[in-house]
Input
Amino acid sequence: MLVFLTRRTLAAVLLLIAITGLAFALIYSSGGNIARNILGELATQEQIEALTAKLGLDRPLLVQYLDWLGSAVTGDLGVSYFTATPVLSSLATRLPVTLSLVIVSIVLSTLIGVLLGVAAAVQRGWLDRFIQIFSVVAESLPNFWVGLALVSVFAIGLGMFPATGYIPINQSVSGWVSTITLPVAALVIGSIASAAQQIRSAVLDVLKKDYVRTLRARGLPEQVIIFRNVLRNAAPPAVTVVSLQFIGMLSGAVLIERVFALPGLGSLAVNAAILGDIPVIMGVLVVTAIIVVIINLIVDLAITWINPKARVQ
Amino acid sequence: MGKQRIRRMLAAAAAGAAVALVLSACAGGESTSPTEGSGEPTAEKLTLAVSLDSGSWEPALLQNGHQAQYWNAVYDTLLHMEPDASIVPGMAESFEYNDDMTVLTLGLREGITFTDGERFNADAVKANVENLKNGTGQNSVMVRSVAEVVVVDDLTAELHLSAPDPALLTYLTLAGGVVGSPAALGTDAITTNPVGSGPYILDVENSEPGVRFEFTRNPDYWDPESYAYDALELVVMPELTARMNALRSGQVQGITADGTTVAEAESASLDVYEWPLNRRGLYLADRDGTVVPALADVRVRQAINYAIDAQGILDGIQLGYGQRSNQVFNPTSVNYVPELNDLFPYDPEKARELLAEAGYADGFDVLLPENPSEKSNPIVQQQLGEVGIRVTYEKVDPTNYVAEVQSGRFGIFWMSNSTAEAWWDMSKQIPADAPWNPFSTSTPELDALIDTARGASGDEYAEAMTAINEYVVENAWFDIWYLENVIYLASPDVEVTVHPMNVVPYINGYRPAAG
Output
């Protein structure tokens, strides 16, 4: 296990270097005049050259990247070109918002998806058909459209929830719940459908196995067979799908954060991209890459725990 | 048995979700200032959504436009601008030019202190002007004409100018006239924590950069009657849909919007404010024919004006929220001439005649930068094509559009710029050294008009500026289509007075609605 973790960590580090290096090269070599964008349309050539030198943008690209990398490994991701706010500070306040949105969404979509998927696979009949139709409809609805519809009805129309904004859980639990209910609902509808379909297919597959028939023949209760044996064997592909959904939600959250004015990582990234605020863009990239690496590691460990056949010796 | 168990679990899950929904509804119904949970905005507090983040609070780096709402909450300016664009005292209670308009004497208001306890005096004015002039902010151009600030006495400062600057008084009402505490200027701290003498004080503890800013009334501000609210909250909301939803649900009381939201706003009984501010159209910048030889001929430039259906673009793309204009100046400017707008009606036939006269009966090719956010691109390409001018668009990085069009690579480019005071607008785009004159074109006649206007005042100034306007329109330096109306939406419980030269109202423009 230690060897496995060490290898994965080294691979993650190399991956981060590759991603950040490529992104750095793409952003800085796009031909943009960063200093002019910061100073505005009325800047003189002297001002542009002065700021370019001050920011170190006149150095070779590799030197700039190594300088950035050297600072990044010590936790210094620079400061925003436009707000002078340390990038790490912005990330620290924004990341919990996105994570709370995504984690709550993934937990809900997994729980509800598992229940619906198992029910559809076991019950069959009208419930199975309803869940399949629901899945098709839900997956085809863009989550930002769902979000807009929810705001229109529940926030503006009925006044049950705030239309925009975010209250951290440490300020008020009920406030936090109220501000993430509609955004989470917009995010999970498609994910529930997808999870339910995956679980349904996996459970149906496992139910056909000989050992399930053997377990039934031995007289084991059906719920024990379903939840201790069938689900456990159906879990690995579902866990993989859930991990992909988590990663997908990180990008899906961008639109939701804009619609609901949630101060998360996604809205930070969009604003930085529009302005050309490169330190912030790089910071968001690093954080997102780290999250993806961690998620993949957790998924691998979960699968080996669920399925002993996959365990590393 | 297993199926019954599953049914019970589904039922339990559904019941749990229903309970959670009810609890959430109970928790969520009260707050319309979602980040605080403090209840709906009241007459004591004004809550506005702003489409951009604050940026740095360093006075030398402040921005006009949307971000003005941030700094004019915490900083005061030497002079103030009234809704009719007239200029009145601010921190300077008197202001007077000498005879040749090269020395502006400011008599400063006594008793003003900054929030760090420093006194406002002539030394503070000197420190701020020099800080702005020597800084890297885009508003340093506002004090470029100031050669020296002389401290006459504690409450008298003289701005000695290298040349007359007719827009200086206007600049001193905007970011150019902001005065921060001299002890804080240039420090790292002031970039995140402003130290001014304005009507409000930033509540740093309850603010979150990039998200929301809370302000409390400054008890020492010299003109409290001009600011009706005791507290202010500015919420950062770049997305128009979110701003609209926040306004309609009562979370905020004012937002900047556009023409696409007016119908929704009116149906929701919101107040709609609009005023002409942004000119939009083509800059026919290469008037010497450096990269596009054809543009050196005034008949070609005039043909372009005739070829584009500006009214059609205003109606179709801008949904009619604007007014037809082919001038780079604001209708409130001393030199705006309504009759000039009739000079180039849409007439493709006339355009073809002019091109033939100029020797371009077969047309010519031209490369334009493609701004992906501008919807008129295909219209321009089509309508110029109909008269023989073959347009090819080159994709440019939208974050670098300004740098690209100012680089001198494109003889023609689309642009949208705000309008303000006449001299300011003129100096941004007409003289040879203007940032929006990338080919530095000029003529002796125009230079003479500019020199005349520079040293003039009163009627003489208005005449000279009018002559400049007529010159650039008749010689088709531009193909301006219209002045876009800025749209601002507000809750009916707030009365808004717009700022004549800014895209959003200043904070003193908000009052509780009567009745």
The two ends of chain A are 8 Å apart (CA to CA).
